[in-house]
Amino acid sequence: MRVGTTCTLHSAVTESNTAAAVGSGDMNVLATPAMAALMEQAAMRAVADSLPEGSTTVGCRLDISHIRATVEGRAFSATAEVTAIEGRSITFALQASDDKGIIGEGTHIRVIVDRKRFMDKALQ
After folding, report:
1. Distance (Å, whole) CA 30 – CA 33
2. Residue 118, SS3?
3. DSSP alpha helices (H): ranges in the chain?
4. Given the DSSP bridges, would you call strands 101-114 and 89-98 parallel, antiparallel or unpaired?
5. Distances 116 to 34, 66, 88 between C-alpha atoms, Å
6. At a CB cut-off of 8 Å and minimum separation 6, what does 42 contact?
7. Cα–Cα distances in Å, from 4 out to 1, 26, 29, 83, 93?
8. Residue 100: which region, alpha, beta or left (left: phi > 0; alpha: psi -120 to 50)?
9. With contact defined as beta carbons under 8 Å apart, do 94 and 43 qualify?
10. Virtual torsion, Cα 9, 14, 20, 22, nearest 10 deg
11. pLDDT tens, 32-67?
């Protein structure tokens, strides 16, 4: 794992990920939570292959701006780039875009955890 590692994921605005469908608004445009989820997924996947066996990352901070609406039927993507690694903490720069340009941006922090210990603690 290193600073500069990126991952870009692609999706499309469908009825199920609109603001009206997820309850974050009442219009048929990409829901902010759906954009955020693709951004987090890109961050997770950017470092997944570099983790020790039995480890994963969990999100602990997400700070994004949803800059512009994307209508149903339009494709969009999310890119995460590793900008810092401090111990178990990984910081990412995030950007989402569609064919008209940037629709969202921000930062995200994920922490490396041992899967079993994390779940054991969560179930207590």
Report:
1. 9
2. helix
3. 19-22, 32-48, 115-122
4. antiparallel
5. 28, 35, 16
6. 7, 8, 9, 78, 79, 80, 94
7. 9, 37, 31, 6, 10
8. alpha
9. yes
10. -50
11. 999 999 999 999 999 999 999 999 999 999 999 999
Is 32:19 a contact under the CB 8 Å cutoff?
yes
Q: What percent of the chain has pLDDT over 90?
A: 99
Vertex 94: Cα angle to 93 and 95 (nearest 5)? 130
Q: Dig out the tokens for 52 from the structure.
A: 């020790």
| 44 token code pair | 């997770």
* Tokens standing for residue 106: 């921000």
